């Protein structure tokens, strides 16, 4: 299924609207004009990873960064994950390509800049496959699968993204382990493969073969 990509808000925020609110590590919120702090910036358009497009995953990655005396970005770090490692890594890679004027006051003062990358498709929602009630096999380790639950993996569940075969069987499952043991992520994927999915016959929107959700731990 072909979908259009919405222009990433990260670029507009920092390089078009110049709408970042910088924070100094020493003195709290700053209100100086951004142009005076960063001068001219040179960046490239963030690249949406091909795998993320295929799985049609969306999200917002929030990060922070500083500017070195040479104008390069330094100490970039995720402050709030999109839930998807592939999107977070693309955000870090994108901000690392930016170059600012050298010897800026913001570099000397250690100013910290927040930034958010919004990864979103701009067309109408498609008809996603739905879990067939009662189709998942009973498990002593997992309680259920919660479709379209985007919360990151944690002690209570594993976030998965996957494609579906024409028969409604999950395939090409990718787990966002987020620190959980790899064996547990593999078990969660195996559990998901026991589930079956189908489309709502009353939903006439274009069908997509992508889905995501969380396998809930007992």
| Rg from alpha-carbon coordinates | 21 Å
Residue stretches low in confidence (pLDDT < 50, at least 5 long) are 6-34
Structural class: alpha+beta
Strand content: 25-35%
Q: How many β strands by DSSP?
A: 13
CATH fold annotation of the largest domain: TolA/TonB C-terminal domain
* Sheet with the most strands, sense and barrel status: 5 strands, antiparallel
CATH architectural type of the largest domain: 2-Layer Sandwich
What series of H and E elements makes up the topology? Answer: HEEHEHEEHEHEEEEEHEE
Overall pLDDT level: 83
Shape: elongated
Strand order of the largest sheet: 2-1-7-4-5
Domain TonB C-terminal: 33-128
Family: Belongs to the TonB family.
GO molecular function: energy transducer activity
Keywords: Cell inner membrane, Cell membrane, Membrane, Protein transport, Signal, Transmembrane, Transmembrane helix, Transport
Architecture overview:
It is a single chain. The protein is of the alpha+beta class and 218 residues long. It folds into two domains: 9-119, TonB (TolA/TonB C-terminal domain); 130-217, no CATH class. The protein contains six helices and 13 strands. It has helices at 9-16, 34-38, 50-55, 85-96, 105-109, 182-192; strands at 23-24, 28-29, 41-42, 59-67, 73-80, 99-100, 111-119, 130-131, 142-147, 157-164, 170-176, 197-198, 210-217. It has a five-stranded antiparallel beta sheet with strand order 2-1-7-4-5. The chain has a four-stranded antiparallel beta sheet with strand order 9-13-10-11, covered by helices on one side. It has a two-stranded antiparallel sheet with strand order 3-6.
């Amino acid at each position: 299924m072909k979908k259009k990509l919405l222009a990433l808000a990260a670029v507009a925020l920092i390089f078009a609207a110049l709408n970042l609110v910088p924070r100094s590590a020493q003195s709290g919120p700053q209100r100086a004009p951004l142009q005076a702090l960063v001068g001219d910036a040179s960046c490239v358009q963030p690249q949406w990873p091909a795998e993320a497009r295929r799985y049609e995953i969306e999200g917002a990655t929030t990060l922070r960064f500083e500017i070195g005396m040479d104008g390069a970005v330094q100490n970039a770090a995720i402050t709030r994950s999109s839930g998807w490692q592939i999107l977070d890594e693309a955000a870090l890679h994108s901000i690392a390509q930016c170059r600012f004027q050298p010897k800026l006051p913001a570099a000397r003062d250690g100013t910290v800049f927040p930034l958010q990358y919004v990864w979103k498709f701009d067309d109408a929602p498609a008809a996603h496959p739905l879990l067939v009630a009662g189709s998942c096999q009973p498990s002593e380790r997992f309680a259920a699968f919660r479709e379209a639950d985007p919360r990151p993996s944690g002690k209570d569940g594993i976030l998965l993204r996957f494609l579906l075969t024409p028969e409604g069987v999950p395939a090409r499952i990718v787990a966002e382990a987020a620190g959980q043991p790899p064996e547990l992520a593999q078990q969660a994927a195996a559990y998901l493969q026991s589930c079956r999915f189908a489309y709502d016959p009353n939903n006439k929107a274009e069908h997509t073969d992508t889905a995501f959700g969380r396998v809930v731990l007992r």
